[in-house]
Amino acid sequence: MSEYPSAIINSINIDKPDELPDDFNKFKLKDIILLSLHDNGGTFRAVYTTPNSTSKSIFFKFKIDFKFLVLISSRDINRNHILNLGDFEQKSVSFSDYDKQALTHFPKYQLITKSKVKRGKILTNRQFKTLSDIKKGDKITAIINDGSLKVEIIVTALDDGNIGQIISVKNQNNQTLKAQVISKNQAIIK
pTM score > 0.90 for this model? Predict the structure, then answer.
């Protein structure tokens, strides 16, 4: 369920197939492949290594009771609003209400709403843009370290970026370089 990192599984019941091979207790499980998943169950294929070292697939049905932890707006949020802790609460929702783009925890970077979000709605990545530490077009100081020599130059950011990220910058000679953002107005040339 790595596809659903915020899933909370309360119970799983696997239906045994009508017929299993006589030597099934000697099979070694090699892989499980999820074939279908819906609100209360699904199917998967289990791949086994048999005692004579061949592969054998067996199909199973299962019933599952699970929910997903997501962030839900606790009030109406206007456009161009910077998301803060008072704007949402974490709740569990069923599979039918889940959205793969849902925010599951408070983001590392500041987010700003692209449009109005109604109270009680699941917050998704589609509703926000990142409020970047450095914006495309900003003039910033780039540091070049070469052993004991340290040179600072003024460059233009070609991308938005947050502290720790690598962005493209252009120097006064129109050369494009890669730089790691270290503050709101500085980067280190890589």
Answer: no
